[in-house]
Design goal:
Structural class: alpha+beta
Radius of gyration: 26 Å
Strand content: 5-15%
Strand order of the largest sheet: 2-4-5-7-6
Distance between the termini: 60 Å
Number of helices: 10
Shape: globular
Number of domains: 2
Number of strands: 7
Length: 370
């Protein structure tokens, strides 16, 4: 009975989320139409959206039923739903809605209707396809996480048994356990980023036709995702500081475009970058959280990022004014903890890290000796 209630609650929550998402999208379409045609009404926009909503869910339903049977069924679904919804859509737009006093298209030419139907269908079929594969990936991710957790548990037990038999000290046992946890976290992190990286490349090719700014930001995000994936392959846990700085600039560019350059940022790099090494994603982790939790609109207190490269030493500083909404920086603390573990592996006893959570401001400083 309890399991049934949980299942019903989950289904109701999903329905509510979908309804809110469609409502938000409908409002977005209305605003976009008003900007172009001030006489546009929200009623016309919502009734225009209804057949495409049905298209989305029909495609999603059929994908869940038949997509595992092969590519041929995907093709049959694509053309079958298009033909079915074209007939329904034509009757809906030109026969049913006019009786209700609603005119969606001023032109009654079949060629015009077919063109609009094809463009809309491609868009919502792609959305349904993306939604289906994202959901499928998340289910696989959950299953793989359980398998990794069990494997991780068995590995820890094996390590503990070996260390006890060898009579090693408790400190060495703790160090090896932490290393296993670190490696396990990286294994888990490899599941979704690969899928997201491929998805971003697909979205970039679609976005180029609609917005070059959106396409460029997707390309930048894909670059950071590829960098994070490549960093997992480095057994030393180190990358050239030049690569880290390139991706840090990409992160800054993304946020500049995202916030239309309303954020105040001072970014300086000084010194020779040749031959210097750092943990991958070290600078990006800190700066990304500054964008997320910092108040960067005050020109008197901008986000300050300073990188000084001396002989065999990297000195990184980041400071920002905090938002005054009392947000708990739990995810930031997790990022600092993860960075500390990676520094212990790659630069044991060769780094200094100081994070000061002061009233109104946050300051971070990292020194690494190569």
């Amino acid at each position: 009975m309890k399991l049934q209630k949980i299942h019903i609650d989950k289904r109701a929550r999903t329905v509510i989320i979908h309804l809110l998402a469609w409502l938000a999208y409908g409002c977005y379409l209305y605003v976009a139409n008003v900007l172009i045609r001030p006489q546009a009404s929200i009623k016309n926009v919502l009734f225009y959206l209804i057949p495409f909503c049905f298209t989305f869910y029909i495609v999603l339903f059929l994908l869940n039923l038949y997509s595992k049977k092969g590519i041929l069924w995907n093709i049959i679904i694509f053309f079958g739903v298009f033909l079915f919804m074209s007939v329904i859509g034509y009757a809906y737009i030109y026969l049913i809605l006019p009786k209700m006093g609603i005119v969606v298209y001023s032109s009654k030419e079949f060629g015009f209707f077919l063109q609009e139907a094809m463009m809309g269908y491609f868009k919502y079929f792609a959305l349904a396809l993306l939604y289906y594969y994202v959901s499928l990936s998340l289910k696989k991710d959950k299953k793989l996480s359980g398998l990794f957790a069990e494997k991780h548990k068995l590995e820890i037990q094996k390590v503990q048994h070996e260390l006890e038999n060898a009579g090693l000290k408790q400190q060495e046992l703790k160090a090896r356990q932490e290393k296993l946890e670190y490696e396990y976290a990286y294994l888990r992190a490899q599941i979704n980023p690969h899928f997201l990286h491929n998805t971003l490349n697909m979205l970039y090719s679609e976005a180029v036709n609609y917005s070059t700014d959106l396409a460029e930001n997707i390309l930048r995000l894909s670059s950071i995702m590829r960098y994070s994936l490549e960093s997992l392959e480095y057994e030393s846990g180190k990358v050239m500081v030049q690569k880290e700085l390139e991706q840090l600039q990409t992160l800054i560019d993304i946020n500049n475009q995202r916030f239309d350059k309303t954020k105040n940022i001072i970014y300086r790099v000084k010194g020779n970058i040749e031959g210097q090494m750092v943990p991958p994603m070290a600078f990006i982790t800190i700066v990304e959280n500054a964008f997320k939790y910092g108040d960067l609109k005050d020109p008197d207190h901008p986000l300050r990022i300073n990188v000084e490269l001396k002989s065999n030493e990297v000195h990184f500083c980041c400071s920002n004014k905090k938002k005054t909404n009392g947000i708990q920086l739990s995810s930031f603390n997790i990022g600092i903890s993860n960075l500390t573990k990676r520094l212990d592996v790659a630069f044991k006893d060769r780094y200094e890290m100081n994070a000061r959570n002061e009233e109104g401001f946050y300051n971070f400083e990292l020194k690494i000796k190569n």
